[in-house]
Each structure stands twice: as C-alpha cells, then as structure tokens.
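step=encode ok
step=design start
structure_in=
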C-alpha cells in the first residue's frame, strides 16, 4: 500500500462513429503518466494524463490529450496482480484537416483492465487496456488505449 508513479508507452486505436473523411486511421502513439495511492490491498485511486499524437488518416491528423481519475480493483496481492479499471475525466481532441486546425473537448469515461507484475517489491512492469467513451462536443469519438510501462511504489 502507498503512493506510486508510472510511465508507459500509450497506443490508441479509434472507434469513431463520426465521419472524419477516410476511415482508415493509423494507430496513434504517445505516453501515459500515472500517479496514485493504493489505500487498500485490493483498491487504488489514481490520476492519469495521456497524450497521443498523430492518430492519422489520409484526410485528418488527430492529437488526443486526456485527464482521468480512476479506481483500480486488484484481483490478487501476489507478484502478478491483474486489475479492473474504471475512471472519468476530460479529453481534448485537436484536428488538423487540410491545414485547418480545430479543437474540441468534452467529458470522457474509461473502463478496462490489465496487470502489474512486480519485478521487485517496489518496481513493476505492466500492461493496461481501456475503452474510452466520449460525450458532449466530442461525442462519437470513442477510442481504445493500450499502455505498456513501468511503475515505482514509494
């Protein structure tokens, strides 16, 4: 139990319902920073910042910045610790289409899971996956985040 910090490579795949020109987007690549506190052996609260640049198609270049507050439920307290994740926050999309730039932001919620594997009692490596549901001005811009990174517990 206690505080932790993490850094991960973040890959994003789109599930957009909205027509943004070409529907064939390349995966976006960015980073995910996590700061949290495990206040129970099986429950943690955390904040995440995710930035993904160049979720591209032939017509549109998209950058995504999101901030989420999450709860993690750990299924075990062993060296290998799978978890489920539920969070809410805000997401900003920046669109660059034919030289015209536009920004929109709105509410977002995410749910998913993953695992932490403890290499030492303080250092873990892990994988997480989450589906992000968007609302307000960014409605129908749902996407999936996949993170692979490391974490340090203080």
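sequence_out=
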């Amino acid at each position: 139990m206690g505080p932790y910090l993490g850094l991960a490579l973040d890959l994003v795949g789109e599930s957009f319902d909205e027509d943004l020109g070409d529907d064939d987007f390349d995966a976006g690549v960015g980073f995910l920073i996590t700061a949290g506190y495990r206040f129970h052996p099986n429950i943690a609260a955390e904040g995440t910042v995710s930035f993904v640049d160049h979720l591209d198609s032939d017509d549109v270049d998209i950058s995504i910045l999101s901030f989420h507050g999450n709860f993690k439920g750990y299924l075990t307290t062993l060296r290998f610790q799978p978890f489920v994740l539920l969070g809410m926050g805000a997401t900003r999309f920046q669109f660059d289409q034919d030289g015209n730039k536009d920004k929109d932001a709105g509410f977002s919620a995410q749910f998913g899971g993953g695992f932490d594997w403890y290499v030492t009692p303080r250092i873990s490596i892990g994988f997480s996956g989450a589906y992000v549901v968007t609302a307000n001005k960014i409605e129908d811009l749902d996407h999936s985040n996949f993170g692979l990174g490391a974490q340090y517990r203080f």
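step=design ok
step=annotate ok -> The chain has no helices and eight strands.
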